[in-house]
Amino acid sequence: MSVDAATVRHVASLARLTVPDERVDALADELSDILAHMAEISAWAPGPPSATSASQTTPRRADVPTPRDDGPALVARAADCREGEVCVPPVIDIP
Amino acid sequence: MMDATALIQAIQGRETSASQAVTAALNQAKATASLGAFISLNEETALAQASRIDADMQRVVPGRLAGLPIAVKDNITQADAPCGCGSKMLSGFTSPTSATALDRLITAGAIPIGRTNMDEFGMGSSGEHSAIGPTRNPWDPARVPGGSSSGSAAAVAAGVVPVALGSDTGGSVRQPAAFCGVVGLKPTYGRVSRSGLVAFGSSLDQIGPITPTVRDAALILEVMAGPDPLDATSLPQAPGEWVQACSRPVDGLRIGLPKQCWAQDTDVSTVVQAALRDLTTRGVTLVEVDIPTLTMAIPTYYLLTSAEASSNLARFDGIRYGQRAIADALEALYSQTRSTFFGPEVQRRILLGTFALSAGYAEEHYERANAVRHQMREEISQALTTVDALATPTAPSTAFALGEKQDDPVAMYLSDVFTTPPSLTGHPAISVPAGLCSGLPVGLQLIGAHQDEATILQLASAVEALRGPLKE
Fold it and tell me: How far apart are CA B208 and CA B201, in angstroms?
């Protein structure tokens, strides 16, 4: 499978990355090369499940919320914060 | 440098002190600064902690690791210390809390002396993908130390500390340990809490120790393992008696050699085979086993981890942590921040992972890779019902030259061919030095049954005893 320039631009936009125009073709080639090595997976058909699979499930604890008291410390580590709040630029330009 | 077990005994026997041990570690870190193993040193806090431990030693029973200097990979949080993950994205970030695994070591008396260099967010097999600069191999500074826990392996190999914490998603503890001639242990998935480990591939990530001896790795695992309410995937079982396991005789044990990993005779495989032959003189039996899906480990690993990474790293958007690019609107801020502060390898994997999860491709790539992973887990578990452990070389080559594979991502990915399977399947695995090849260390990897760290530690100790210290 090969990736073209339009796909790179689409995926970059999904990933919130800016890819400069001069890098698009090179990235398309790199991703195509990587995906060529992954072709074996697309062609693979699973075998019958074995008897050991049931015992391999990772046990998990109940997912219950726990109180935290480090909110202010976490907010203080944001890229920009004022008066205990995280600051962000405007989402919509207001004239 | 003494190993951890000997140093702890020396401190408890008052032959040396925690302050002397920490001072020696800091001096050696500075003397070997050209290796690039450390991003920062916690000089003041480490010496203060050592003084407290020395003072307490007169009054109270010392902790199990009292006075032991350790180094910590830069993606494992430590309260009030920088945590940058080898990335420009998190430069300047200081963690408010410590990872559970590190917290347990500190409670037992270990003293973190510094933050070790790493491939950015754990993505790399050479130690070259760090925004801080590359790490060099103490055996030959013109060569890579392996990655992504490059600084941790180099710090132990250079005699700075007898214990360094690394994280292993596809071999990031074992492969650099092999390249640097030290021991690296990846525990069973869930054995050590991931709380406080900055996520790369959450369903594979494990914290593991890098040490000069197998016994030291067992000791550190005993202290940091065990259930943790802060990690939903941590196993409920209490730590085992792994130090004791290192002294058990190995006669009667059976080791499986997956034929997919031994298809080619190389200089590296010759060294590893010699170490395995040594084990047979102690009553170990070697048998060939067949694990067909191993041939698909690399594509499966890179598809799944890139998919998980693209999701995990979405949080680094310029809003909540670290750096922020200048932009006057929110969408532009996201993309400019991520493009400016993520390095090229991280961006490549985010793109690959986003592609693998995107509409129209997820079934062919992500879901199929997940199915391979399940099959591989069944095949390895099945093989481990007929043998006690599996053995492979840790890496297909010795440490390669700096820059040799940097422009060829696929060649770089292939260095993980033997370490990725137990990461995908959650089985425990250890790399132990097997010998030298053209003057460079070679690692033997042992893979154990789920939650059976004891047997691989037992076998690795026997390899260590039979092969002796690595000598040029």
Answer: 15
Other C-beta atoms within 10 Å of B258: how many? 22
B149 is catalytic: no
3-state SS, residue A1: coil
Q: A79 CB near a chain B CB, below 8 Å?
A: yes
Query: Mapping DSSP to helix (H, G, I), strand (E, B) and coil, where does residue A63 land?
Result: coil
Are B319 and A86 a contacting pair at CB < 8 A?
yes
pLDDT tens across the length of chain B (472 residues):
899 999 999 999 999 999 999 999 999 999 999 999 999 999 999 999 999 999 999 888 899 999 999 999 999 999 999 999 999 999 989 998 999 999 999 999 999 999 999 999 999 999 999 999 999 999 999 999 999 999 999 999 999 999 999 999 999 999 999 999 999 999 999 999 999 999 999 999 999 999 999 999 999 999 999 999 899 899 999 999 999 999 999 999 999 999 999 988 899 999 999 999 999 999 999 999 999 999 999 999 999 999 999 999 999 999 887 789 988 888 899 999 999 999 999 999 999 999 999 988 888 888 889 999 999 999 999 999 999 999 999 999 999 999 999 888 888 888 899 999 999 999 999 999 999 999 999 999 999 999 999 999 999 999 999 998 887 6
Read off the DSSP letter of residue A50. P
Token reading at B386: 């007929």
Q: pTM to 2 decimals?
A: 0.95
CA B34 to mean position of chain CA atoms: 22
Chain B residues inside the 8 Å CB shell of A41: 296, 299-300, 303, 365, 368-369, 372
The rounded distance, in Å, linking the Cα atoms of B322 and B328 is 18
Say whether residue A82 is in contact with chain B using an 8 A CB cutoff. Answer: no
CA atoms within 13 A on the CB side of A9: 8
Q: Which of A23, A58, A81, A92 to mutate to test the interface with B (most CBs of B within 10 A)?
A: A58
Which has the closest alpha carbon to B305: B171, B173, B449?
B171
Q: Residue A86 in 3-state DSSP? A: strand
Phi, psi of B257 (to 5 degrees): -110, 105
Distance CA B100, CA B193 (A): 6
Single out the residue of B139, B165, B140 nearest to residue B151, CA to CA.
B165
- Residue A78 near residue B321, CB atoms below 8 Å: yes
Residue in B4, B394, B432 with CA at minimum distance from that of residue B224: B4
B189/A58 touch (CB, cutoff 8 Å), yes or no: yes
In angstroms, the separation between the Cα of residue B131 and the nearest Cα of chain A is: 18
**C-alpha count within 13 angstroms, C-beta hemisphere, residue B34:** 5
